[in-house]
Amino acid sequence: MGSFRSSAPDLNDRDRGLFADFMVGGKQQKPRRPSSTIQKCAFGEGCRKVVISKNLGNVPMPKPSDFCDIRSPNGGWWDCCAHHQCDADGCYAPRKYNVLKGRHFIYCPKHKCIREGCERSHPSWQQYCTTHTCVKPDCGVIVEGDEKLCARHMKCAYNSCPSNRIRKDGEYQPFCSRHSACATTQCTRDKKAGSEFCTLHTCPMSDCTKRCIGDHFYCSDHICESDMCRNPRTFYLESQNVVLTRYCPIHECRKPSCHLSARNQTYGYCRAHNCEVPSCNNLKMIDPDSYPPLTMCRK
Questions:
Q1: Among candidate residues 63, 78, 93, the one where a domain is terminated
Q2: Rounded distance, CA 201 to CA 253, Å?
Q3: Integer distance in angstroms from the first to the last C-alpha of the chain?
Q4: Diameter of the chain by CA atoms?
Q5: What's the total number of domains in the chain?
Q6: Does residue 65 sit within a domain?
Q7: Is 45 part of any domain?
Q8: Does residue 194 lie within any of the structural domains?
């Protein structure tokens, strides 16, 4: 019986190489037919360099040899070189190319904000960056152009007006251009905050938003009821509440705590407190023990 050595088949050079790899634990490599092709750099529109690459078979990801010498990384296990990788942590995909500017963004299509031309990345829970997100709390909808509000929050606050709000000094106003103007006919001034009218046509009394009467300075609630008077009414406190009277200081009775109209409308007393002499504006004499009651002043 012959020995194992003498009975083993002869190995050619190829088989000897495979056997040697097997004995040392090496991995058997599939043979590939080397061939060279001339093509553009696989980096895309951003690179116009020509590369000579070897066809190493069908590989799903781009091969290092498909990139020019500038864009091929050492080892070649990611898509492109560090200079052209997506800037997002852990991403090695090529950056998206900006056709309009002729250069690359710093993020790949997956991590770049979907707004065309935007250079920023987006949070993981949405496809657009925070700059292009509506600033209204709990909204999170994408905005148009350079707006800060989404289409829903951009609408004019006047009833069902479909127009968008206007911005003044960078701040959104409650109304559109048509409803931001004073409601007074032919007035083009901006409305006063909380009022339908501009500052000129809004009553100046505290917390009042009503329109002034005609060309007067106050509204019907605050103007003196005396004919042709333009002055504001007086007011007094009653149980911590502000109570308006009907007249201004000139046309109200001068007697403390009396708020009736002065008899002759010229800074005097009401009929109950004014001397009954027609030409006198003095206060009547008051004597509780007098009978009949006094009707004239000391004079």
A1: 78
A2: 30
A3: 165
A4: 165
A5: 3
A6: yes
A7: yes
A8: yes
Q: What is the mean pLDDT of residues 174-201?
A: 84
Q: Residue 33 and residue 246: Cα distance in Å, rounded? A: 106
CA 77 to each of CA 36, 53, 82: distance values in angstroms, whole numbers, following the listed order: 21, 16, 12
Return all residues near 83 (Cβ < 8 A) that are at least 6 apart: 70, 71
Question: Given a cut of 80, is residue 55 above it in pLDDT?
Answer: no
Distances (CA, A) of 24 to 4, 10, 12, 17, 35: 21, 20, 18, 11, 30
Percent of the chain with pLDDT over 90: 4
Does 1 have pLDDT greater than 60?
A: no
Q: Give the domain extent around 238.
A: 224-299
Whether 120 is in a domain gets the answer: no
Q: Locate 135 and state its tokens.
A: 């600033």
What angle (nearest 5°) sits at the alpha carbon of residue 255, between those of residues 252 and 258? 65
Q: What is the pLDDT of residues 257-292, one digit of tens each?
A: 888 888 776 678 888 888 888 778 778 776 545 555
pTM exceeds cut of 0.70? no
Q: What is the pLDDT of residue 203?
A: 92
Instruction: State both tokens at 173.
Output: 């106003």
Asked which of 78, 102, 128 is the last residue of a domain, the reply is: 78
Q: Tell me what percent of the residues of the chain surpass a pLDDT of 70.
A: 68
